[in-house]
Amino acid sequence: MYKSVLFLILHVKQAAMKWLLFVLLGLALFSCKKKKYIAYDNKNYKKARVCRESNAADSAFYYYNLAKNDYLKINDSLGIAKSLVNMAMIQTNKGDFYGGIESSLEANKYLKKEKDSTVRSTLATNYNNIALAFHFLKSFDKSFDFYFKALTYIENEDDKLLCYNNIGDVLVTQGNFKLAKKYLQKALLTNNSTNYSKALNNLAKAKYLDDENYNPLPELYQALEIRESNKDELGKNSSFETLSEYYAKKDKSLSLSFAKKMFETAVNTKRPSDQILALQKIIILDPQNYLTNFQKFISINSDLQTERNKAKNQFAFVRYDLEGRRAENEILKSNSLKKNFGLLTLSTLLIGGGFWYRKRKIRLQQEKELEVKNTQLKMSKKVHDVVANGIYQVMTKIENQESFDKEKALDELEFVYEKSRDISYDKLDQMGSPKDCKEKISNLIASFKNDDTDTYTVGNEEEIWTTMPQSHFEEVYQVIRELLVNMKKHSQASRVVLKFERSENQVEIHYTDNGIGIPGDIIHKNGLTNTVSRIAAIKGAIIFDTKTEKGLKINISFPVS
Predict the structure, then answer these.
(1) 213-259 pLDDT tens trace
(2) Taking the CB of residue 381, how many other CB atoms lie within 10 A of it?
(3) CA atoms within 13 A of residue 443's CA, in its CB half-sphere
(4) Domain tally, the chain
(5) What's the CA gap between 173 and 142, in Å, rounded?
(6) Which candidate, 15, 305, 356, 499, has a CA 20 to 30 Å from the CA of 236?
(7) Membrane-crossing residues (predicted)?
(8) How far apart (Å, rounded) are the C-alpha atoms in residues 298 and 287?
(9) CATH code of the domain covering residue 96
């Protein structure tokens, strides 16, 4: 189990607790040259800075976008770029990683005069933001490349040392511990105690991961002591994470203690991503309270994904809305220059432009609302399939077992937990062999057999699943589980039969039970909505026979190629 814990920690350690480590470099680079850049008095840019310093990120993004448009009017390329870089950093910080990369790449178009010191510092900040976004997206090779690009434009020695730390951290994530140690040794040369503690903590981690006999505790506790002295709450959380990870194989109770400290600090600093990271450790280390902690994890993760989706839609809407206004203003300006050609032409253009803008704005709003709704429906569907049905299946097994195997039940709950972690990444299971598929279906149906209900499987042979796409099998598996869960909850059936047939590239599944049946007018209730939509998604058909004298018959058919 601890191997899976270590893999889990290494896999998710790029969570948002790390963001400040990288963003600090961006902010330092972005501010070190700003006094040499003299621009006209852009009031919107000033408002944006005030909002950002007050942690009003949404308002700051809005005013930076206005400032960018102001700079566009006077062809101030550096002003445009600085506005876009600030917008990109806000997007990345809010979880809109692809949006942040897009804004950064747009900013690069206006940063061509690389001999200018302000342009160079802005490029360093911009590449640092792209590297950070790719880090969160787990594209570590790209993250590594862009940190090196940022390094080529950094002139301040302290900023270079902080960048070495960032590069070392990525190398640790990639498992290149020896090279990571070289960069982290350089990062230790800093005179900044906060940055020193970061490099020291990361270096100790690289050393013990490279050599299991190495004792990193003196360095880890020294880094924690510095952070406590500096009242560096985010830094303390990083130390708690590393110590919990180190003790995971050596002292479970101590590892759990540090994980709980990490969660408590994350709550106090209002860092939901850190709370999720801490709960992932606590769930594994404290199996007695598995369900309670797992419910916390699901709730916090759901809220975080909703906030990130909201941020993506909000940032996109701000940019589209302001672009629409700018287009309308351009039309008005053009029309005013041509007003001598006739009042009728001017009126027509104004009315047409206004109608076009309002229609476009409504359409964009509707598209964004639909996108949010679809995202929420998709997430709800996945949570229902993976978590609700998964846990219900485990509960059914426990209910039907004469002797309760605690370790096996925990393993199955841990599998449900592992599946739930992949919800936001749309990750599919690896396709098994036809034999694996056959056994998986048979085990699923058998798990619903108990003293009150007998389940029978007919025709579930390997040939049924040969050449079937992975996506089809996943949908069919979820459909069968949904039917069995619905049967267990509502049908009162004592006998359930699933018959499988295949004719060339067409598969048919016949479900029959002797329960109380289901009225035709509520087929799309009782959790069967997902069943119908899943079969439709694989271009299949599902027929509910509600006219049977007793029980329920369902015929499912779909192509496999």
Answers:
(1) 999 999 999 999 999 999 999 999 999 999 999 999 899 999 999 99
(2) 16
(3) 9
(4) 2
(5) 13
(6) 305
(7) 341-358
(8) 16
(9) 1.25.40
